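Prompt: I keep going back and forth on a fold encoding question. Comparing notes only helps if you start from a blank page. Show me how you would write down a chain together with its backbone fold. Please set it down just below, with no commentary around it:
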Amino acid sequence: MKHSSIGCSKVEALAVLGGAPAFAKAIPVGQLYFPSWDDYEKMFHSIFKCRYYTNQGPLADLLESRLADYLQVRHVVCVTNATIGLKMAAEGLGIKGRVILPSFTFIATAQSLLWNNLVPVFCDVDRETHYLDFNHLERLLRRGANAVLPVNLWGGAYDMERIHALAQRYDIPFYFDSAHGLGCVTRGRPLGGYGNAEVFSMHATKVLSAGEGGCIATNDGDLAERLRNIRSSYGVHTPVHVERTANGRMSEAQAALGLLSLDAIDANIKNNQHLHQVYRDNLNSIPGVLVVSPVNVEYSNCQYLVCEVEEQAFGLSRDALWRALHAENIIARRYFSPGVHRCHPFDSIISDDLPVTEHLCSTVIQLPLGARVDVEAVSAICQRIQQIHSQASEVSAVLESGL
């Protein structure tokens, strides 16, 4: 998949040391897989011909049906975005009180709880997996909780057998923020049918994109019906009483993009997997750079290329590498930084110490992967990282001087 418009230059002097950037145009980290113009035009022509633009139209219905088949679940409820999906899931499950979640996540995970007047309880994560630390999780559960909201990161998954055992033991809902997980397979079946519900993102940065959008997957028919009624009065199968509605309808335009993206998902994941391997082959020899592998999956969407940067071995901190890469027009991302427990208004909540979260928030970096890079671009990015490591002292001196 070649994109000559990226404009990769011959690798010479580092940009932070006065050379030309490695790339003439900025390379974002997101997936940004777009359909062909012809397919886009045909699909949108059908919307205008039908003159049905929103309120659970035929394309939204079709996308829900196809996603249910793809995820091997009984019900999929498409929504405006994943954040609204998380709010609706908590509302539909009738959760009250304390919800345990990792602080090492995107802030919207925790914000969804505030919208439902729930109390976030931050749990530390495991050093190797980046997922909830089960020992800390059990300590928090013994103190009392009303639900758990695990987050499936980096194209991986939790140890679902262990999660299921905890859910049964404590008899509380476990519902997943699986924004990163659409297309991943664990224990022989896709993410989507685990816990009480799973919420997926279909943002443009995800491997399945509706431009913006999301969906809630569940095998619980009663929950699905409540979610449809919470979403709006459109598209419900059976009207049921709900306390609040969310106006979370997915438009036909979003559904059209989602259907086109679903058609291409296998090819896009295959491309991600190939680029992921190219990164691994090139970065594994650089001291202090550890490529994070998706865990507990037989098949990963590989939509994120995430590394941990060990400052002593690499010669620079993660933040210094991030700044040097931005100078090369490589728009790497410090993911996640800071931890949610240090962001307003969550910084006012008294939490246990979260040492692993603190460590990861200062060492993890996301590199570009998806439609906007090819093998040549990935190789150039890795070469720049190698150069930055080799010239760490010079780079550090320039960054510290503020030049």
